[in-house]
Amino acid sequence: MLPRALAPTRTNASRHTQKNKWKRARSFSTSTATNTDFTHAVIGGGIIGLSIARHLALTRPNTTTILLERHPALGTETTSRNSEVIHAGLYYPPASLKTQLCIRGKHLLYSLCASPSHNIPHKRTSKWILAQDAEQRERLQRLHEHAERLGVPTRFLGTAEMARREPDVRARAGVLESPSTGIVDSHALMARLHGEFEEGGGDVALLTAVSGVEKMGPGGGYRIYTRPAGPGREAEVADGEEETTITAETVINAAGHNACAISNMLLPPARHVHPAYAKGTYFSYAASSPKPRTLLYPAPKSGLGGLGTHLTLDMTGQVRFGPDVEWVDGPEDLVPNVGRLEEAVREIREYLPGVRPEAIGLDYCGVRPKLAGKEGEDKGAFRDFVIREEEGFEGFVNLLGIESPGLTSALAIGERVGELLYG
């Protein structure tokens, strides 16, 4: 069963109506006020774009923000096709944006979800990272020392505690626990952020594909060309439709799978970037046992582009496995590949030997929007988030390669973009 998508509460019902709405008088408070339709235009209505738009709407009350989304609903790409895990921030270099924003985002996310006025379903499930041999145990030791330097809590478990808490789990060489890892209902989170964005005066334009972006001149903002998107999941520009133009003082490119294409519309060829696509298949589990209550991850391996075929839980406690990693040519390949099942079962049985293979089935797929490396570089090598105001393009903020831990980092990314724009 595919994960559900967030239903929209406001749509661009007619192009004529939206043209008129975009042309109404606005007041601006950026350092170089211009006669533009909006202060901020955020491209991409996933969890990242929505978090940025919400942050700008709530913290800059004298500005105007529009969120442009090419699909008929928000959060229909990577946001709806992930593990919904709140990550601790263990795996990445200390100075990386992935580490800094994951740790900050984790605290912001737990605080938001637990607020009585929000009450977003979430749970601190904890996570076990499992070693099966001496080499993997050494990796866990290095990970523990790394976490200590970051101030992220981890601890090794004794065999008696392991057996008491999760008797069906096998970890021949030890378990490192991450107690601050958890899960969140990403759809409820999206709904809350969407509501707060609109309550803050933000506008959402669905089925709106960006076909071009150009700089209007020094201090003059940006012109964005849009067309109605087609009916398919790929949200391609509909044939024969005329372009509509809007202008904004700032443009934030949070377009996920389309972020490289948006960036390349504006930046010169020497600064073009290229995507890489890591497809991940998720597997369902139909049996009632074994049924762990903790997230289970194999010891990390370098160069894979992922964290192994791990076990996660949804808010009802239902077990699911994945994602694995399969490099594909584009983000449209969302059909689970039955050829991935045998390898997944083998990996799962390493740490959950009592699992019933016949109860493991194909569920759904997601595609992580990674950045391509240089010629000859390993596809699975570490690459950090790219979040920057582009040199020579004041007010244009690029967000590229925003994959895992993007969901956890989303609220912190909103803060980061606000700092880039306003200091």
Secondary structure layout:
Elements: H1 15-22, E1 38-43, H2 47-59, E2 65-68, E3 85-86, H3 97-114, E4 122-123, E5 127-131, H4 134-150, E6 155-156, H5 159-165, E7 174-178, E8 182-184, H6 186-199, E9 203-205, E10 208-215, E11 222-228, E12 244-253, H7 259-266, E13 275-285, E14 295-298, E15 311-313, E16 319-321, E17 326-328, H8 341-351, E18 360-371, E19 386-389, E20 396-400, H9 406-422
Parallel strand pairs: 1-2, 1-12, 2-9, 5-14, 12-20
Antiparallel strand pairs: 3-8, 4-8, 5-7, 6-7, 10-11, 11-12, 13-16, 13-17, 13-18, 15-16, 19-20
Cofactor: FAD
Domain FAD dependent oxidoreductase: 41-420
Catalytic activity: (S)-2-hydroxyglutarate + A = 2-oxoglutarate + AH2
Runs in which pLDDT lies below 50 for 5 or more consecutive residues are 1-33
The amount of helix comes to 25-40%
Architecture per CATH nomenclature, i.e. the level-2 architecture of the largest domain: 3-Layer(bba) Sandwich
CATH class of the largest domain: Alpha Beta
Which sequence of SSEs, written as H and E, runs from N to C?
HEHEEHEEHEHEEHEEEEHEEEEEHEEEH
- Distance N terminus to C terminus? 44 Å
* CATH fold field value of the largest domain: FAD/NAD(P)-binding domain
Task: Kindly name the structural category.
Answer: alpha+beta
Supply the number of structural domains: 2
Question: How many beta-strand runs?
Answer: 20
Radius of gyration, in angstroms, nearest whole number: 22 Å
- What does the largest sheet look like? 8 strands, mixed
What do we call the CATH homologous superfamily of the largest domain?
FAD/NAD(P)-binding domain
Provide the β-strand percentage band: 15-25%
Number of helix segments? 9
User: What's the overall geometry?
Assistant: elongated
Average pLDDT figure: 89
Cofactor: FAD
Catalytic activity: (S)-2-hydroxyglutarate + A = 2-oxoglutarate + AH2
EC number: 1.1.99.2
Region (Disordered): 1-28
